[in-house]
Amino acid sequence: MSAADPTGAQLLVVIDPVARRVDGESTRIARDVLCAGAVAKICLPSGAEEVARAVARRGRRRTVVIGDDRALLRVVGLLHRRRELADTPLAWVPVGSLPAVTVARELGVPLGAVAAARAVLEGVERRLGLLADDSDGVVLHGLHVPSGASHRAAAVPAGGGAPWWSPAARTARTALTLLSGPSDRHPLPGCARLRVEADGVLLADLDRPVGRVAVSAVDGLAHVAIHPRTGTHPLRTHARTVTVSGPDFRYRADNRVRGPVRTRTWTAVPEAWRLTLPG
Protein backbone atom coordinates (compact mmCIF):
# COMPACT_ATOMS: atom_id res chain seq x y z
CA MET A 1 0.00 0.00 0.00
CA SER A 2 1.41 3.38 -1.01
CA ALA A 3 2.20 6.08 1.58
CA ALA A 4 0.20 8.46 -0.58
CA ASP A 5 -2.73 6.09 -0.36
CA PRO A 6 -3.25 5.21 3.32
CA THR A 7 -6.73 3.75 2.80
CA GLY A 8 -5.95 1.72 -0.29
CA ALA A 9 -8.28 3.85 -2.44
CA GLN A 10 -7.72 3.68 -6.17
CA LEU A 11 -9.19 6.25 -8.49
CA LEU A 12 -9.87 6.62 -12.20
CA VAL A 13 -9.77 10.40 -12.72
CA VAL A 14 -11.53 11.43 -15.93
CA ILE A 15 -10.63 15.04 -16.75
CA ASP A 16 -13.07 16.58 -19.20
CA PRO A 17 -11.42 18.49 -22.07
CA VAL A 18 -13.74 21.47 -21.51
CA ALA A 19 -12.51 21.75 -17.91
CA ARG A 20 -8.90 21.75 -19.08
CA ARG A 21 -9.72 24.55 -21.50
CA VAL A 22 -11.91 26.83 -19.39
CA ASP A 23 -10.07 26.54 -16.05
CA GLY A 24 -6.77 24.76 -16.34
CA GLU A 25 -5.58 25.99 -12.94
CA SER A 26 -8.51 24.51 -11.00
CA THR A 27 -8.19 21.31 -12.99
CA ARG A 28 -4.49 21.02 -12.14
CA ILE A 29 -5.09 21.73 -8.46
CA ALA A 30 -7.82 19.08 -8.25
CA ARG A 31 -5.61 16.51 -9.98
CA ASP A 32 -2.68 17.24 -7.67
CA VAL A 33 -4.82 16.92 -4.51
CA LEU A 34 -6.27 13.61 -5.70
CA CYS A 35 -2.89 12.20 -6.69
CA ALA A 36 -1.42 13.19 -3.32
CA GLY A 37 -4.16 11.36 -1.43
CA ALA A 38 -4.78 8.23 -3.49
CA VAL A 39 -3.42 6.00 -6.22
CA ALA A 40 -4.91 7.72 -9.24
CA LYS A 41 -4.97 6.78 -12.90
CA ILE A 42 -5.40 9.97 -14.92
CA CYS A 43 -7.49 9.88 -18.11
CA LEU A 44 -7.38 12.84 -20.51
CA PRO A 45 -10.05 11.95 -23.09
CA SER A 46 -10.57 14.00 -26.21
CA GLY A 47 -14.14 12.89 -26.74
CA ALA A 48 -17.06 10.71 -25.63
CA GLU A 49 -15.63 7.51 -27.14
CA GLU A 50 -12.45 7.78 -25.10
CA VAL A 51 -14.48 8.44 -21.95
CA ALA A 52 -16.50 5.28 -22.64
CA ARG A 53 -13.36 3.19 -23.13
CA ALA A 54 -11.76 4.49 -19.94
CA VAL A 55 -14.86 3.87 -17.85
CA ALA A 56 -15.26 0.36 -19.31
CA ARG A 57 -11.70 -0.45 -18.20
CA ARG A 58 -11.98 1.10 -14.73
CA GLY A 59 -11.74 -2.23 -12.93
CA ARG A 60 -12.15 -1.70 -9.16
CA ARG A 61 -11.19 1.95 -9.29
CA ARG A 62 -13.66 4.60 -8.16
CA THR A 63 -14.45 6.91 -11.06
CA VAL A 64 -13.86 10.62 -10.42
CA VAL A 65 -15.10 13.18 -12.92
CA ILE A 66 -13.39 16.57 -13.15
CA GLY A 67 -15.63 18.86 -15.18
CA ASP A 68 -18.99 20.59 -15.32
CA ASP A 69 -22.52 19.20 -15.14
CA ARG A 70 -22.37 17.85 -18.67
CA ALA A 71 -19.18 15.94 -17.95
CA LEU A 72 -20.79 14.14 -15.03
CA LEU A 73 -24.04 13.54 -16.92
CA ARG A 74 -22.05 11.96 -19.75
CA VAL A 75 -20.55 9.39 -17.39
CA VAL A 76 -23.79 8.78 -15.47
CA GLY A 77 -25.71 8.34 -18.72
CA LEU A 78 -23.10 5.94 -20.06
CA LEU A 79 -23.22 3.78 -16.94
CA HIS A 80 -27.04 3.88 -16.95
CA ARG A 81 -27.17 2.59 -20.53
CA ARG A 82 -24.68 -0.14 -19.64
CA ARG A 83 -26.85 -1.05 -16.62
CA GLU A 84 -23.84 -0.54 -14.36
CA LEU A 85 -24.80 2.70 -12.65
CA ALA A 86 -26.10 1.29 -9.36
CA ASP A 87 -22.89 -0.70 -8.79
CA THR A 88 -20.37 1.99 -9.76
CA PRO A 89 -19.08 4.41 -7.09
CA LEU A 90 -18.65 7.93 -8.45
CA ALA A 91 -17.10 11.16 -7.22
CA TRP A 92 -17.01 14.63 -8.75
CA VAL A 93 -14.87 17.74 -8.78
CA PRO A 94 -16.95 20.44 -10.53
CA VAL A 95 -14.98 22.82 -12.75
CA GLY A 96 -16.74 25.79 -14.30
CA SER A 97 -18.96 28.67 -13.25
CA LEU A 98 -22.72 28.88 -12.84
CA PRO A 99 -24.89 27.86 -14.57
CA ALA A 100 -22.55 25.15 -15.92
CA VAL A 101 -22.27 23.58 -12.45
CA THR A 102 -25.84 24.12 -11.23
CA VAL A 103 -26.41 20.40 -10.71
CA ALA A 104 -23.25 20.16 -8.60
CA ARG A 105 -24.47 22.94 -6.34
CA GLU A 106 -27.90 21.40 -5.94
CA LEU A 107 -26.45 17.99 -5.05
CA GLY A 108 -24.20 19.52 -2.41
CA VAL A 109 -20.86 18.99 -4.15
CA PRO A 110 -18.36 21.74 -3.18
CA LEU A 111 -17.72 24.19 -6.01
CA GLY A 112 -14.09 24.91 -5.08
CA ALA A 113 -11.41 22.63 -6.54
CA VAL A 114 -9.58 21.97 -3.26
CA ALA A 115 -12.74 21.41 -1.19
CA ALA A 116 -14.26 19.15 -3.84
CA ALA A 117 -11.08 17.08 -4.21
CA ARG A 118 -10.82 16.68 -0.44
CA ALA A 119 -14.45 15.59 -0.34
CA VAL A 120 -13.59 12.90 -2.89
CA LEU A 121 -10.88 11.60 -0.55
CA GLU A 122 -12.61 12.13 2.80
CA GLY A 123 -16.33 12.21 2.05
CA VAL A 124 -19.15 9.73 2.49
CA GLU A 125 -20.78 7.73 -0.26
CA ARG A 126 -24.51 8.32 -0.58
CA ARG A 127 -27.08 6.63 -2.77
CA LEU A 128 -29.18 9.13 -4.70
CA GLY A 129 -32.34 8.86 -6.74
CA LEU A 130 -32.91 10.05 -10.30
CA LEU A 131 -35.50 10.16 -13.07
CA ALA A 132 -35.05 7.67 -15.91
CA ASP A 133 -36.90 8.37 -19.14
CA ASP A 134 -38.27 6.11 -21.86
CA SER A 135 -35.41 6.97 -24.23
CA ASP A 136 -32.79 5.59 -21.79
CA GLY A 137 -31.87 9.06 -20.56
CA VAL A 138 -31.48 10.24 -16.97
CA VAL A 139 -32.26 13.40 -15.03
CA LEU A 140 -30.28 13.95 -11.82
CA HIS A 141 -31.77 17.19 -10.51
CA GLY A 142 -35.04 18.12 -12.17
CA LEU A 143 -36.80 19.24 -15.32
CA HIS A 144 -39.24 21.83 -16.62
CA VAL A 145 -41.69 21.70 -19.52
CA PRO A 146 -41.62 23.77 -21.65
CA SER A 147 -37.89 24.52 -21.68
CA GLY A 148 -38.27 28.31 -21.72
CA ALA A 149 -39.80 28.34 -18.23
CA SER A 150 -36.77 27.15 -16.30
CA HIS A 151 -36.16 28.76 -12.93
CA ARG A 152 -33.14 30.95 -12.43
CA ALA A 153 -30.24 29.58 -10.42
CA ALA A 154 -29.95 31.24 -7.04
CA ALA A 155 -26.89 33.38 -6.56
CA VAL A 156 -23.98 31.97 -4.57
CA PRO A 157 -23.67 33.87 -1.28
CA ALA A 158 -20.79 36.24 -0.71
CA GLY A 159 -17.63 34.41 0.27
CA GLY A 160 -17.70 32.03 -2.70
CA GLY A 161 -19.21 28.98 -1.06
CA ALA A 162 -22.64 27.44 -1.50
CA PRO A 163 -24.74 27.11 1.66
CA TRP A 164 -24.48 23.77 3.42
CA TRP A 165 -27.31 21.70 4.82
CA SER A 166 -27.64 18.08 5.80
CA PRO A 167 -28.36 15.81 2.78
CA ALA A 168 -32.01 15.41 3.79
CA ALA A 169 -32.55 19.13 4.33
CA ARG A 170 -30.70 19.99 1.14
CA THR A 171 -32.87 17.56 -0.85
CA ALA A 172 -36.04 19.08 0.59
CA ARG A 173 -34.80 22.60 -0.14
CA THR A 174 -33.94 21.64 -3.71
CA ALA A 175 -37.38 20.18 -4.29
CA LEU A 176 -39.08 23.25 -2.84
CA THR A 177 -37.03 25.59 -5.04
CA LEU A 178 -37.63 23.53 -8.16
CA LEU A 179 -41.33 23.00 -7.66
CA SER A 180 -42.31 26.39 -6.28
CA GLY A 181 -41.69 28.15 -9.58
CA PRO A 182 -41.47 31.87 -10.36
CA SER A 183 -43.21 34.37 -8.15
CA ASP A 184 -45.94 36.71 -9.32
CA ARG A 185 -43.21 39.26 -10.07
CA HIS A 186 -41.86 36.89 -12.72
CA PRO A 187 -44.93 35.59 -14.60
CA LEU A 188 -44.61 32.48 -16.70
CA PRO A 189 -44.08 33.28 -20.40
CA GLY A 190 -46.63 31.93 -22.84
CA CYS A 191 -48.52 28.72 -22.23
CA ALA A 192 -48.32 25.10 -23.27
CA ARG A 193 -50.95 22.59 -24.31
CA LEU A 194 -49.81 19.47 -22.48
CA ARG A 195 -51.36 16.27 -21.25
CA VAL A 196 -49.85 15.25 -17.89
CA GLU A 197 -50.41 11.92 -16.17
CA ALA A 198 -48.96 10.76 -12.85
CA ASP A 199 -49.22 7.02 -12.17
CA GLY A 200 -52.02 6.93 -14.75
CA VAL A 201 -54.03 9.74 -13.15
CA LEU A 202 -54.80 12.63 -15.51
CA LEU A 203 -53.63 15.95 -14.03
CA ALA A 204 -53.80 18.24 -17.08
CA ASP A 205 -55.13 17.92 -20.59
CA LEU A 206 -54.68 19.64 -23.93
CA ASP A 207 -57.85 21.74 -23.61
CA ARG A 208 -56.50 23.60 -20.55
CA PRO A 209 -53.10 25.19 -21.31
CA VAL A 210 -50.63 25.33 -18.44
CA GLY A 211 -47.78 27.70 -17.72
CA ARG A 212 -45.23 25.09 -16.72
CA VAL A 213 -44.75 21.53 -15.48
CA ALA A 214 -41.88 20.84 -13.07
CA VAL A 215 -40.68 17.39 -12.02
CA SER A 216 -37.91 16.43 -9.60
CA ALA A 217 -36.71 13.19 -7.97
CA VAL A 218 -36.97 13.34 -4.18
CA ASP A 219 -37.01 10.49 -1.67
CA GLY A 220 -37.53 7.86 -4.35
CA LEU A 221 -40.52 9.55 -5.97
CA ALA A 222 -41.19 12.04 -8.76
CA HIS A 223 -42.49 15.28 -7.27
CA VAL A 224 -44.72 17.07 -9.78
CA ALA A 225 -45.96 20.66 -9.86
CA ILE A 226 -48.27 21.94 -12.59
CA HIS A 227 -48.30 25.73 -12.72
CA PRO A 228 -51.37 27.33 -14.32
CA ARG A 229 -50.99 30.33 -16.58
CA THR A 230 -52.81 32.51 -14.05
CA GLY A 231 -51.50 33.42 -10.63
CA THR A 232 -53.32 30.59 -8.79
CA HIS A 233 -51.42 28.01 -6.80
CA PRO A 234 -49.88 25.07 -8.66
CA LEU A 235 -51.24 21.56 -8.47
CA ARG A 236 -48.74 19.32 -6.67
CA THR A 237 -48.45 15.57 -6.32
CA HIS A 238 -45.92 12.77 -6.24
CA ALA A 239 -45.80 9.55 -8.23
CA ARG A 240 -43.62 6.74 -9.51
CA THR A 241 -44.08 7.66 -13.18
CA VAL A 242 -44.96 10.89 -14.97
CA THR A 243 -45.94 11.15 -18.63
CA VAL A 244 -46.10 14.44 -20.53
CA SER A 245 -47.46 14.55 -24.09
CA GLY A 246 -48.71 17.09 -26.58
CA PRO A 247 -47.60 18.97 -29.69
CA ASP A 248 -43.83 18.96 -30.20
CA PHE A 249 -42.27 20.38 -27.02
CA ARG A 250 -38.83 20.91 -25.59
CA TYR A 251 -37.95 20.54 -21.95
CA ARG A 252 -35.04 21.65 -19.79
CA ALA A 253 -33.47 18.85 -17.74
CA ASP A 254 -30.40 19.37 -15.56
CA ASN A 255 -30.04 22.80 -17.17
CA ARG A 256 -29.93 21.36 -20.70
CA VAL A 257 -32.64 21.79 -23.33
CA ARG A 258 -33.81 18.50 -24.82
CA GLY A 259 -36.31 17.53 -27.50
CA PRO A 260 -38.45 18.24 -29.35
CA VAL A 261 -40.62 15.24 -28.45
CA ARG A 262 -44.33 14.52 -28.52
CA THR A 263 -44.38 12.32 -25.45
CA ARG A 264 -41.97 11.43 -22.68
CA THR A 265 -42.31 9.29 -19.58
CA TRP A 266 -40.07 9.64 -16.53
CA THR A 267 -39.80 7.00 -13.82
CA ALA A 268 -38.42 7.75 -10.38
CA VAL A 269 -35.63 5.34 -9.46
CA PRO A 270 -34.67 5.43 -5.77
CA GLU A 271 -31.04 4.91 -4.75
CA ALA A 272 -30.09 4.63 -8.41
CA TRP A 273 -26.51 5.86 -8.21
CA ARG A 274 -23.63 6.32 -5.76
CA LEU A 275 -21.89 9.66 -5.24
CA THR A 276 -19.30 10.69 -2.66
CA LEU A 277 -20.38 13.86 -0.83
CA PRO A 278 -18.95 15.80 2.12
CA GLY A 279 -19.60 13.98 5.38
Automatic annotation (TrEMBL):
<protein>
    <submittedName>
        <fullName>Diacylglycerol kinase</fullName>
    </submittedName>
</protein>
<dbReference type="InterPro" id="IPR017438">
    <property type="entry name" value="ATP-NAD_kinase_N"/>
</dbReference>
<keyword id="KW-0418">Kinase</keyword>
<dbReference type="InterPro" id="IPR016064">
    <property type="entry name" value="NAD/diacylglycerol_kinase_sf"/>
</dbReference>
<keyword id="KW-0808">Transferase</keyword>
<dbReference type="GO" id="GO:0016301">
    <property type="term" value="F:kinase activity"/>
</dbReference>
